[in-house]
Design goal:
The structure is a single chain. Helix content is about 40%, strand content about 25%. The chain has about 230 residues and is of the alpha+beta class. The strands form three sheets. Strands 1-8-3-6 form a four-stranded antiparallel β-sheet. It has a four-stranded antiparallel β-sheet with strand order 2-7-4-5. Strands 9-10-12-11 form a four-stranded antiparallel β-sheet. Helix 6 packs across helix 8 and helix 7 crosses helix 8. It is globular and about 60 Å long.
Length: about 230
């Protein structure tokens, strides 16, 4: 089930020890045989994987990178991003109408049902699994919170603030978002058309909230505003 062969060689070479899964495995006392049943899944930035590529996994541990959970758009429906996860997250495999999309080069550990059962049999490890799933659910709620804004510009502002809280880097005059964000991607995050996102970003630029710096966006706000 490993997708290593489908990933660029430089991404595979960059993989570090899977700290998140190994910590969980250590708590449960899993042996080497059980650990070998959990392959690495490397997904290059921008690539999507559906459930057929992860059919043997009952859970996914995000070791590195940022992944999005996307609902595929059927007839009369648009594709939407309904979740976003960071390293250390425990993720359920995508459903029949969902895909996992790598926002950056990503590495996950795929946990089959037999190993998940071993983890759940140890109370301390089971507690970690429950906490991880609760955190994943919270992130999905947070990702959808920006959809509550009536004005599209407020949705975009809310989404940028949420991204800054989780992925922002403090710099001299604001918070830099080191993520490959496109107008199409933000549109799928906030549930509106790409053209609407473009107009919203232009308005937020005019009012001094955000600016484009090369390939990345920068929020022209103090770190205290992000934490609030």
């Amino acid at each position: 089930m490993s997708l290593r062969t489908a990933a660029p060689a430089n991404l595979v070479r960059a993989l570090k020890p899977r700290a998140a899964f190994d910590e969980l495995a250590d708590i449960a006392g899993l042996g080497s045989d059980a650990r070998r049943l959990c392959p690495a899944v490397a997904i290059p930035s921008g690539v999507q994987r559906d459930r057929t590529a992860l059919s043997a996994a009952r859970a996914l541990v995000l070791e590195a990178g940022v992944v999005l959970l996307r609902v595929k758009g059927g007839p009369g429906h648009r594709s939407l991003i309904i979740g976003r996860h960071c390293p250390g997250a425990l993720i359920s495999p995508p459903g029949p109408d969902e895909v996992i999309q790598a926002l950056t080069d990503t590495w996950l550990t795929a946990v089959p049902g037999s190993v998940l059962a071993q983890l759940l049999a140890v109370p301390a490890a089971a507690e970690r699994v429950v906490v991880g799933l609760e955190e994943a659910l919270r992130r999905q709620r947070d990702a959808s919170r920006s959809l509550s804004g009536i004005r599209h510009v407020d949705r975009v502002r809310s989404q940028l603030l949420e991204l800054a809280r989780e992925h922002g880097r403090v710099c001299r005059d604001g918070i830099r978002l080191d993520l490959p964000l496109t107008h199409d991607l933000i549109a799928d995050m906030v549930g509106c058309a790409r053209e609407t996102v473009t107009r919203s970003l232009e308005e937020l630029d005019r009012c001094g909230f955000v600016t484009r710096r090369g390939r990345y966006y920068q929020l022209l706000v103090a770190p205290e505003a992000i934490s609030a």
